[in-house]
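Sample entry (215 residues):
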Amino acid sequence: MLKVKEIEFKGQAGLEQVSRLLEEHAELQAIDLINWDQFSYRPSVAFRIAHSNNAIWIKYYVKEKNILASVGETNGPVARDSCVEFFFDPLGNGDYYNFEFNCIGTVHLAYGAGRGQRQFVDPNTIKNLIEVQSSLGSQTFTERTGDFSWEMTIIIPAEILTHNPEIKLKGLKSTANFYKCGDATSQRHYLTWNSVGTEKPDYHRPEFFGKLIFQ
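Predicted structure, serialized as tokens:
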């Protein structure tokens, strides 16, 4: 269970302000669980989360050996790249949004009840509403190998929850999971915040989401 702190801010906070406010007010959480032994590589991954003015703020911190950013098109297959993900079920009823971001901030976002029942959110809506800033910039690149550290700050306004137009985050009891993956990287990996009890890697399993309570 994770309690999502409210950070009060007058006006519209930009990405630089959100990054700083998260550093000052939100605790660091780890994405470090290996649920599938055949994928034993564990990059260092953590995040901070808070909410303000009916928007979710997230900042990810990643250290890994291989970075890849081949996808630049919204709703493309970003999970193939160095990717962080936030799967969010606002009502805790099994219908969830899968927010996926490769390391240059390309967004993949859909909604539904399971892997085979996803509806993409319109790319223009995504571009107009979600704000993302990565320390690696926004240009695609082929895989690089070494020791890399990168950070990403994300603003997710509640308006992007297009199937839940009346949602108010304050006081909301929801479920979610946070992930790190890299399907096409040299060291494939599948880390989770809350444990997933499946035989093979599968993030589309809302029954394994943890509780997210917005204060």
